[in-house]
Amino acid sequence: MKIKRILLCCITLMLSHNLSATTLRMAFDSDPISLDPHEQLSEGTLQFSHLVFDPLLRWDQNDNFEPRLAKRWERVDERTVRFFLHQNVAFHSGNPFTAQDVVYTIQRLKTSPDFRAMFDTIESASVVDDHTVDVHTFDPSPLLLNIMAYVFPIDKRFYQGRDQIIKYGNSFASHNVSGTGPFILKSRELGTRMELDRNPQYWDTNSRGNVDKIIMTPIRTDSTRLAALLSDDVDFISPVSPIDIKRAERSTNIQLVTIPSTSILLLHMNQARRIEFQDVRVRKAINLAINQTLIVDKILKNFATPAGQLSHARFLGHREELLPKYDLKEARQLMKEAGYEKGFRVSMMAPNNRYVSDEKVAQAIAAMLAKINIQVDLKTLPKAQYFKEFSHKSADIMTLGWQSDTMDSNNLFEFIVACEDENTGLGAYNASKYCQPEIDKRIKQANREMDIDQRQRLLQEIESILYDDAAVVPLYWQSVIWAAKNDVKIRDIINDQNNPYLGDLVVETK
Amino acid sequence: MLIFLLRRFIQACFVMVIISVISFAIQDKLGDPVQQMVGMTVSVEERQQLREQLGLNDSFLTQYWRFTKNALQGDLGTSFYYKKPVLEVIFQKVPATLELAFCAIVLVVLIATPFGVLAAIKPKHAISRIVMIVTSIGLSVPIFIVAILMMYLFSIEWNLAPSFGRGETTQVLGFWESGLFNKDGLNHLLLPSLSLAFALMPIFTRLIRAEMMEVLQSEYIRFAWSKGLSSNRIYFIHALKNTMLPIITIGGIQAGTLVAYTILTETIFQWPGMGFLFMDAVSRVDTPLISAYLIVVGGMFVITNTVVDLIYGLVNPTVRLASHGL
């Protein structure tokens, strides 16, 4: 009897001990290049920002805004929005979080080369009281909240005076960090390992997250990353390559979670380089000859959505009826009408390590175009070289992937199809050299239009013009794929921007 | 001896100058470092400014002259990504690579020597035949397939060894982060060093076998037999020692292969050493780091070859260094 009791005591003790620390070991393909959240606008930096900092607000899984450090907000007038901040929030350094920090952060963002373009619409931010901030824009801005999702307040007293943003140098901010986020950085060996501990004073006491410690290892090779998960060396990985999905599915204690993202892949047909591409019939024929559905089905194993337009279904500019169309007969007919029945030869470039299966997709496209007698000289390059070629627009057909930072159609239009203008930066990625004043006019209007229905009409009109003009070839929207052990409940914390909210992650304990 | 070393030193400098010129000349083909530093939406103007600050707009000669001036003062540049002097970054990763290479070499010696000798003295034995088959397979299968197969079997299927990384390290002598002194570190070493060893083993086994067979035919071995020496003494003292000479030469040449293979092994097993660092630098277009790596590796080549020549003299005293190898 006595022995039983002692045993029972022992077991209870052991169980309670087990509960005390939950460690999450994760492996992503990249790590943040710097601890400075304003140094580079990239996925790695944003993922890191969500760990160590908190945004004012963020998107939830249904694309609604979810209050974070700002508990609510209201529009004061056409050009001003007032944000009410949480009280009793502290930075990791111990400094209290106030309106001053938000104003300071916005000012710093406006000087960051990477974030400046986005924050150009914001005129200033001003302190109303200790926990209230007003944000003013130059013009009425329909996307102010979308931009505010990129404000991760940093610790003014910690950074001030030593806060230069230097991209290649040893700045204070690139090696030191103080945020309000759910995790505190413990150690970091660049490119090899990063360790974070749970913030014991985290303000969001409603968060269900129970991860006490995160060990993050960037693993760049796809197969090694998956092997690490399968061999129980890590608990959570992203991304998973479509070729490996079968292998991952065979394992019973691993879950694969995938979300269609809004990031689009498309082809540019350079009209300045090729006179043939100036003929809308040729562009239409190319659009008809490329079978997006087949590519998605066979190469991407359905981990993508075939696209007939640039705007994802969650964007305002999306039009239900614009679907990708495949019709070889019609394509050949159009080529004949345009006088290119015998076809012609074009050059094409695509990256081979930037997007999922990008090389194979490019090869498939070359084969599809051969069917309408367009001979493609395909060259695929590693991303480092590819984007250099892309900026010189050095091939007739070029692949591009784009994720709208503001989760809005207009960002796509501004960078990809607007007329090229070096002064305003419009059309910076327009490797089609396509220029349609009707589109530019609507882009400008949509940037100021506060009425959502009007705005939607403008953006949808742009999509229609693009579709009728066959300006580019939309291919598909990529999906993001994560894999984790079954007891790591990633399904609740992932989203289509690929910023897992790890602060809220629940790991089931046995 | 001194003259020999001096000549070697001059040779090394010459090699490094050539490497630095080549690495500088190819930089432009690797991609644009600025592209890697900024986000997609950054304007052309900002990029141009950054290029200007980094001195990337200067002509090849200006850039190379600046580099040489600094290099002579021991500064090979600052890594764009690590934001630290490149030599510091590289030397931080040296222990990992050297330990991996060391373990692989130990494995090669421990495995290749007995099997090679056995295959030479008992060519008809079943084990010898298996050794010959395995080595010919080993010669023809590329290392990355071996590595991936090992990872699949040992870490995924049987869960015997971790699949990536270096594990725990302990500090030795105050500066050397070593994985050799704790269980976790050794566990992590297992697969990478095995696959690296597997890449080098076949050639050494076959070489030892061939050399040994030749030596066993020679006059002095026959004389030893007729003198009635024990077979162990003949095989391992008389024959093996003379077998070593060509093997050391090949070993020196293979040091280059070893560097190439560590790049592959380290990439597959995410081993945080120099090879992995280099691959990473290439994908990030971290040009200062790429040049420095090539120069350091070039230096290591020259040093290993010098050491090989020195050992040569020790093993065979008839070789006179001063008249040997430049």
What is this structure, in a nutshell?
Helices cover 31% and strands 23% of the residues of chain A.
Give a structural overview.
The complex is a heterodimer of chains A (510) and B (326). Chain A has 510 residues and is of the alpha+beta class. In chain A, 31% of the residues lie in helices and 23% in strands. Chain A is built from 16 helices and 17 strands. With 326 residues, chain B is mainly alpha-helical. Chain B has a domain at 94-316: MetI-like fold (Orthogonal Bundle), CATH 1.10.3720. Chain B has helices at 2-26, 33-37, 44-54, 60-72, 86-121, 126-140, 143-157, 183-216, 219-227, 231-269, 274-284, 287-315, and strands spanning 170-172, 176-178. In chain B, strand 1 (170-172) and strand 2 form a beta hairpin. The longest helix of chain B is centred in the C-terminal third of the chain and has 39 residues, at 231-269. The mean pLDDT of chain B is 86. The interface between A and B is large, with 47 and 46 residues.
